[in-house]
Write a structure and sequence with these properties.
With 334 residues, the protein is α/β, with parallel strands linked by helices. It is built from 11 helices and 9 strands. It folds into 2 domains: 163 residues, Rossmann fold (3-Layer(aba) Sandwich); 153 residues, Aspartate/ornithine carbamoyltransferase (Rossmann fold), CATH 3.40.50.1370. Strand 5, helix 6 and strand 6 form a beta-alpha-beta unit. Helix 5 crosses helix 6. It binds phosphoric acid mono(formamide)ester (CP). The site of phosphoric acid mono(formamide)ester has 10 residues, from helix 2.
């Protein structure tokens, strides 16, 4: 006798249908969040909500990018950004090509522009790019036809990280307006900090930057600078008082020049986010970190894996947010 198994009659997945007004979207490239409007950021959130349904298999895979090739061009190492862009592009049915600069003709002296035009000649439609030079994607954007998504340029910007961070906050807190965020650590070398400052202030959040004076950009937080809702506080306890969001940044030892810190031990003593320090923030404050973490340096293991940490969620939300961005760029016109 034939029995009927669950998998013989699977529940049909919802058909991929995106009924959303995307007219707020203005971008051909995504280079940083300075030129994003709050409406565009909200649109990315609403699309990411839908993309999460594809990720959880409630909805069929989308075919938006079935005729497009997405190239991940990484001149610097990455785990989260590269893999999540790859997953995001596959979920939208794109052809995906991954290029690591150290294994390409870059090692034979090929220039960035030559590499890029070669990729376009091979059919690249959207290029996700990480580069150690601040501004590299901006230079390319002047010359190329493909859409460029900045996956992190030097110390300058990491816009998709900023958007996935904002999305994670919004999922937990609802309205972002008026929330107090503390960005803690190496602000000077932090592209994540810069993009988050733009994104958070666009969404009406209050931002406190906290870290050693030698790792703070000169002029930021001064009266009359570009960010009226950003202040600098060197004392960690004062900074954390009443915070809704505590975003810890990695101490970027690879970008440090000698003399910026007396020692790592001093940094740990003065600026590590510990359970005791976190207690000064609101009891429901979120602990965030873009990764990779130096556990035991900028963040204690107890906090990194504690009940307030949403660090793994940030990574998962990164796929949904990057799907939303690829979806929008895949339909954008120059
Ligand atoms: N947050 C981030 O950019 O991580 P990766 O360097 O692993 O991509």
């Amino acid at each position: 006798m034939k029995t009927t198994r669950q998998e013989d009659n699977p529940v049909p997945l919802a058909k991929p249908e995106i009924v959303l007004d995307t007219s707020a979207w203005r971008h051909y490239h995504v280079l940083d969040l300075d030129d994003f409007t709050a409406e565009e950021i909200e649109l990315v959130f609403r699309l990411a909500d839908i993309m999460k349904k594809v990720m959880s298999h409630e909805m069929e895979k989308l075919t938006t990018l079935k005729d497009k090739t997405v190239v991940n061009l990484f001149y610097e190492s990455s785990t989260r950004t590269r893999v999540s862009f790859e997953a995001a592009a596959i979920n939208l049915s794109a052809t995906v090509v991954n290029i690591t600069a150290s294994a390409s003709s870059v090692t034979k002296g090929e220039s960035l522009l030559d590499t890029f035009t070669t990729l376009e000649a091979l059919g690249a439609d959207i290029v996700v790019m990480r580069h150690s030079q601040s501004g590299a994607p901006y230079t390319l954007a002047r010359y190329v036809k493909a859409n460029i998504l900045n996956g992190g340029d030097g110390r300058h910007a990491h816009p998709t990280q900023g958007l996935l961070d904002l999305y994670t906050m919004q999922l937990h807190k609802g309205n972002l307006k008026g929330l107090k965020a503390v960005i803690l650590g190496d602000i000077l070398h932090g592209r994540v900090a810069r993009s988050n400052i733009w994104g958070m202030t666009k969404m009406g959040m209050q931002v406190t930057l906290c870290g050693p004076p030698t790792l703070m950009p000169i002029g930021i937080g001064n009266q009359g600078d570009a960010f009226p809702n950003v202040k600098v506080e060197f004392d960690i306890d004062a900074a954390l008082d009443g915070a809704d969001i505590v975003m810890v940044l990695r101490l970027q030892r690879e970008r440090q020049q000698g003399g910026l810190l007396p020692s790592i031990r001093d940094y740990v003593q003065l600026y590590q986010l510990t359970e005791q320090r976190l207690a000064r923030a609101k009891p429901d404050a979120l602990v965030m970190h873009p990764g990779p973490m130096n556990e035991g340096i900028e963040i204690s293991p107890a906090v990194a894996h504690g009940p307030q940490a949403v660090i793994d969620e940030q990574v998962t939300n990164g796929v949904a947010v990057r799907m939303a961005l690829l979806y929008l760029l895949g339909r954008s016109e120059k």
